[in-house]
From TrEMBL:
Family of this protein: Belongs to the major facilitator superfamily. Proton-dependent oligopeptide transporter (POT/PTR) (TC 2.A.17) family.
Name of the protein in question: Peptide MFS transporter
Species this protein is from: Pseudonocardia adelaidensis
NCBIfam families, alphabetized: yjdL_sub1_fam
Keywords of the record: Cell membrane, Membrane, Transmembrane, Transmembrane helix, Transport
């Protein structure tokens, strides 16, 4: 450990040159992602496997659509978590309370039968993850002074924690589901989140006063209205979850429209708010093309949990020395690369400092790389049965990982740098809106996938996203100018 200058209220101790609070946020995010991805990778199978296989017997297209819509709802709920942090509780407490709600959701999936357990569990996990995700990332941003060149490296290390959890989660829950049953897999996700909460509570002191107080406290006179809005949100979620007011097959489309409209409203609110200075407003405008690029990237990447989950179950050869691994292990392949490459990228960005590519260029490279990775599946298109070797998909997912490291941790970092002071947590929620929009779109797109249409499916999706990346690359000088000094 060494001593260094930190923002006011943040302990000055460091680990590997980064604020010591990074270790606590690293740990809680690791366990939250363990539980989230461990559950998500077996969720689709639980929905469309037959009753004899322990599933619910839904149509496959409906099941993948639900997974995409659920993922989008998780990120949509970040607006509620961000608002509560900014106006009521502060970011630090929202991380803890969000984890508690996530744990309760996994317990519901483990103990409640049928679609009732799915509805209760997914609503709770969506609300809890939204609160934890928006605020853990924003809280990390407060540990670094503005302009600190260590920030990109710190977010990349934080991303390593995310992917350690994403790697181990599907291995554990998938093996338990395959050998014992789905509900035991869901229970393992609950245990993982519980471990994360214990670790976070034990080392909260490492965060000092960071995120303890809301930056824009809600006046007492406004609280009744806020409570009413909160109750209305819960009622709407309950109605959607427990009735057929929105058909299950339409959920991803509805979620995508809601996220798009909510994003437009959020941008309009920040651009018109008197609390946002002219300089901050310019930076918010520069963020718009990055938002669109991010959504395009995640619309393909999140198909790991929709199309590629089905692809893994029907097209991949998982036989290893005579033993067949669970199909859900496809979710652990890409994190292997992230674990290997994250320290490399963190060291590279720190060493390059101002000589590194600008943020808009990093975004464009990540989006283009994601499109190329999708095109790589064309090599195996037209095959029959489980003819695609798992090792080949591992290599393709290496392209996913390089693209992800070019855009995702950088997106988290630049969001904190461009955020207006009065909208710090809510700006991070807007970042997650772009991830949510891409995630829900992955559910929409998944409904068009079939083995017979693999050439068209992987080809068209890959080419469209490459075009989006090229447009961002062309706009990068304009974006950089409007970021006003943020590299």
């Amino acid at each position: 450990m060494t001593e260094t200058v930190q923002p006011s209220g943040v302990p000055s101790r460091t680990v590997f040159g980064h604020p010591i609070g990074l270790t606590n946020l690293f740990g809680v995010e690791l366990w939250e992602r363990f539980s989230f991805y461990g559950m998500l990778l077996i969720l689709g199978y639980y929905l469309y496997y037959s009753l004899d296989q322990g599933g619910l017997g839904l149509p496959q297209a409906t099941a993948t659509g639900i997974v995409g819509a659920y993922g989008g709802t998780v990120y949509l709920s970040t607006v509620l978590g961000g608002w509560l942090a900014d106006r009521v509780l502060g970011m630090e407490r929202m991380v803890f309370y969000g984890g508690v709600v996530v744990m309760l959701g996994h317990i519901a999936l483990a103990v409640l039968p049928g679609l009732t357990g799915v509805a209760v569990g997914l609503v709770l996990v969506a609300l809890g993850s939204g609160a934890l995700k928006a605020n853990a990332s924003s809280l990390l941003g407060t540990l670094y002074a503005k302009g600190d060149p260590r920030a990109d490296g710190g977010f990349t290390l934080f991303y390593l924690g995310i992917n350690l959890g994403a790697f181990v989660g599907p291995l554990v829950t998938g093996l338990l589901q395959d050998t014992i049953g789905f509900h035991v897999g869901f229970a393992a996700a609950a245990v993982g989140m519980a471990l994360g909460l214990v670790q976070y509570a034990a080392f909260r002191r490492n965060l000092g006063s960071a995120g303890k107080q809301p930056p824009n406290p809600l006046p007492a006179s406004a609280r009744p209205k806020a409570i009413g809005i909160g109750v209305a949100i819960v009622v709407v979620l309950a109605v959607v979850a427990f009735t057929e007011v929105v058909p299950l097959a339409a959920l991803p489309r509805v979620t995508s429209v809601v996220l798009a409209l909510a994003s437009i409203a959020y941008f309009a609110t920040m651009l018109s708010s008197p609390r946002v200075t002219p300089s901050e407003r310019t930076k918010v405008r520069a963020y718009i093309p990055l938002f669109i690029a991010n959504a395009a990237f995640w619309s393909l990447f999140q198909q790991i949990f929709t199309v590629l989950a089905v692809y893994s179950d029907e097209r991949m050869n998982w036989t290893i020395f005579g033993w067949t691994a669970p199909s859900s292990w496809v979710g652990s392949l890409e994190p292997i690369w992230i674990i290997i490459l994250s320290p490399v990228f963190a060291a590279m960005w720190t060493r390059l400092d101002r000589r590194a590519p600008s943020t808009p260029r990093k975004f464009s490279y990540g989006v283009i790389g994601m499109g190329i990775a999708f095109l790589a599946f064309l090599i195996f298109a037209g095959g029959t049965g489980r003819s695609t070797p798992a090792i080949a998909v591992l290599v393709i997912l290496g392209l996913f990982a390089v693209s992800e490291l070019m855009i995702s941790p950088i997106g988290l970092s630049v969001t904190t740098k461009l955020a207006p002071e009065s909208f710090r947590a809510q700006m991070m929620a807007l970042y997650f809106f772009s991830v949510g929009l891409g995630t829900s779109m992955s559910g929409v797109l998944a409904q068009f996938y079939s083995v017979d249409a693999e050439f068209a499916y992987f080809g068209v999706n890959g080419l469209v996203v490459i075009v989006v990346g090229l447009v961002v690359l062309a706009l990068s000088p304009w974006i950089s100018r409007h970021m006003e000094g943020v590299h």
